[in-house]
Design a protein that fits this description.
single chain; two-stranded antiparallel sheet; globular; six-stranded mixed β-sheet; 15 helices; 4 domains; alpha/beta
């Protein structure tokens, strides 16, 4: 074979016949996902759910089913921005096939995704999450008896350098400059350098940046918080309620980063119960496990008085000396019952399972699913974005049951592993001198990865 060179300037064809275009070979993972959604009539459901928010006349827009499929691609490919999703879909023939577009057709632009997101209310995204949850129930992956609750931080699309005072509207530099004038570090009309401002701010005592005094003018819903990596940044708080039997996310709520865990446990658990009831499976959440950050007497009492009928809490408590003089009998009973449950062997096993499976949901949705950093602003937009990520995670659990992998990269790794097992089988056959066409040894047939 002769040595080939890549031409520097190749004359491109002016016209290409459609028949000459090679069809997309397809990706087995997305082919199976497409069949799953088609069997559930996902596109028809999306059209019916989104029809009230579109005009009766005018130019036809992008089908809602295509919009939601592109957001699902963002989770499965680990892409965190709409621009990246649009680029990926435009670049892949397999993804074009999954979206229902031909090889020569253009996929939607990122600006179209923004307009559709602004058009559709948060209610539609919640109904989409419940639609996927019904699919999960149809595949026998919904238990909803024992749930685990935990939260994590999502980095907001806003910078700490842009925060301003709520009362005066001053930025950080103007505020520190005023303090320098009060301390007579500079004159009334003198403007300090950036280095001088930073040096003064570093050494001043009592320095505090509070959400009560500061906000970002571009995203007022984002709150100042400490992220998982130790950085102080504007952020949101995502809270998952996870089925501890099957790892299905029953609720994915988003709050401001300054919302305490003790205040959001009951709303998140009630949202999970509402989503379960929407599947018509008639299941009730009976056990709620969380870490010690959720423990408070008010929270334990609120669970007993909420719509979670008969639900029992498993919340470890901090080492505290309780004073019962100002506590009601109901509060004392709730605390002592919760303490007894967490100290039993079953409660300890439940906590171990919670710490493993709820954290795994954050790893899938936030770290490898592109949900840790949001490029959207406003609590409503972040909620929409995170709900779709959680729904995609639940779809991945169905595909893990059908294919053995919940994401395309894991599916490719599984295929490589089975190929290695196939090679090992062939080597073992030759070593044991087992004929390939022997009917008596059919159990030694090569393993194959079925789509």
């Amino acid at each position: 074979m002769a040595f080939g060179k890549r031409p520097d300037n190749r004359q491109q064809e002016l016209f290409i016949a459609t028949a000459e275009l090679a069809g997309a070979p397809g990706h087995a993972f997305y082919e199976r996902l497409g069949k799953l959604l088609a069997r559930a009539q996902f596109d028809r459901w999306a059209q019916d759910a989104c029809r009230p928010y579109y005009a009766d006349g005018g130019r036809p827009g992008i089908p809602p089913g295509v919009y939601f499929r592109m957001l699902l691609v963002g989770y499965f490919e680990g892409i965190d921005s709409q621009r990246g999703i649009a680029w990926r879909c435009a670049d892949s023939l397999s993804l074009k096939q999954f979206l229902g577009y031909g090889p020569t057709e253009s996929t939607p632009d990122h600006s179209s995704l923004t307009k559709i997101r602004q058009r559709l209310p948060e209610e539609v995204y919640g109904r989409m999450f419940e639609f996927v949850l019904r699919l999960v129930a149809d595949h026998k992956l919904l238990s909803a008896r024992e749930v685990g609750v935990d939260s994590t931080t999502l980095e907001a699309n806003a910078a700490m350098k842009s925060i301003v005072r709520k009362d005066t509207g001053e930025g950080w530099r103007e505020y520190v400059t005023g303090l320098m004038r009060e301390a007579r570090e500079i004159g009334p009309d003198e403007e300090p350098s950036a280095e001088a401002v930073a040096k003064f701010d570093k050494r001043r005592k009592g320095k505090k940046v509070s959400n009560d005094d500061w906000e970002n003018p571009h995203d007022k819903d984002a709150k100042i918080a400490k992220l998982k990596d130790g950085r102080t940044h504007l952020a949101y708080k995502a809270e998952h309620v996870v089925d501890l039997q099957t790892e299905v996310i029953l609720a994915a709520e988003t709050y401001g980063a300054n919302e305490a865990d003790t205040a959001t446990l009951v709303p998140s658990a009630e949202a999970a119960q509402d989503h379960v009831e929407a599947t018509n499976t008639y299941r009730l959440i009976s056990k709620i496990a969380a870490d010690k950050g959720y423990h408070a007497i008010e929270t334990l009492t609120a669970v007993e008085q909420s719509a979670l009928v008969g639900a029992k809490t498993y919340l470890p408590e901090r080492a505290t000396k309780w004073k019962w003089d100002d506590k009601s009998p109901a509060q004392k009973r709730a605390l002592l019952n919760n303490r007894a449950r967490t100290q039993r062997d079953y409660g300890k096993r439940l906590q171990r399972r919670r710490s493993e499976r709820v954290e795994r949901s954050f790893a899938h949705v936030c770290d490898t699913g592109g949900g840790r950093r949001t490029w959207l602003r406003g609590l409503e937009n972040v909620r929409k974005h995170h709900l779709v990520k959680a729904a995609a995670h639940n779809l991945g659990l169905i595909l893990r049951k059908l294919l053995g992998a919940s994401k395309p990269r894991a599916y490719a790794a599984l295929g490589t592993l089975l190929q290695l097992l196939h090679i090992a089988q062939i080597t073992l056959r030759r070593f044991l001198r087992i004929p390939d066409d022997s009917k008596l040894n059919s159990r030694h047939a090569p393993l194959r990865l079925s789509a």
